[in-house]
Amino acid sequence: MTILGNILWIFLGGGILIFFLYLFGGVVLCLTIVGIPFGMQCFKLSVLGLMPFGQKIVNKESEPGCLTTVMNVVWLVFGGLELAAVHLVFAVLCAITIIGIPFARQHLKLLSLALMPFGREVQPFPDK
After folding, report:
1. Distance CA 91, CA 18 (A)
2. Residue spans of alpha helices (H) in the chain
3. Which member of 3, 44, 63, 90 lies 3.0 to 4.6 Å from 119 by CB, making a disulfide possible if both were Cys?
4. What are the angstrom distances between the C-alpha of 85 and each of 13, 16, 32, 126?
5. Contact, 94 vs 103, CB < 8 A?
6. pTM, 2 dp
7. To 10 degrees, the CA torsion angle through 92, 81, 108, 89?
8. What's the Cα-to-Cα distance from 128 to each of 4, 54, 112, rounded to whole Å?
9. Largest CA-CA distance found in the chain, in angstroms, rounded
10. Per-residue pLDDT of the chain (128 residues; tens, 9 = 90+)
11. Which residues of 78-104 are buried (b: 16+ CB within 10 A; e: fewer)?
12. For residues 34 and 127, what is the distance between their CA atoms, to the nearest angstrom?
């Protein structure tokens, strides 16, 4: 079901567009020294944006709290809120139909990572 969900997501849920936009943003941010940590977070979002089904977001236990908090605040101020708002709008649009509810849940997953990406990582669900 995960493979089918990811294939449908790529073509019907906008996954390929999300992937390329976050990838482009990551490359642009990595062109500057200051933007490299933020570009790496865009790469994380692009991978999750391409194949969100079968993935979960977990908090890293080894990340220092103060630096992670400061970086998340900078991320929020310079674009994180806008990214989260876009994913919220797409989640609402997808949730209008019953068929779109799984896609809406994936947009909400992307919203949570787009809101505060530092100190979090994407992991696959364990196989059953």
Report:
1. 13
2. 2-12, 15-30, 36-50, 65-75, 81-95, 101-115
3. 63
4. 17, 19, 26, 30
5. yes
6. 0.87
7. 10
8. 17, 12, 25
9. 45
10. 788 988 999 988 788 999 999 999 999 999 999 999 999 999 999 999 999 999 999 888 776 678 888 999 999 999 899 999 999 999 999 999 898 999 999 999 999 999 999 989 898 887 65
11. eebeebbebbbebbeebbeeeebebbb
12. 38
- Taking phi over 0 as left and psi of -120 to 50 as alpha, with beta for the rest, 75 belongs to alpha
* Residues facing 122 on adjacent strands: 57
Extract the tokens encoding 61. 């236990």
Q: How far apart are CA 128 and CA 31, in angstroms?
A: 41
Query: Which tokens sit at 112?
Result: 């949570």
| 119 residue type, one letter | G
Three-class DSSP category at 58? strand
Angle between helices 101-115 and 81-95 (to 10 degrees): 170
Q: Which amino acid is at 42?
A: C
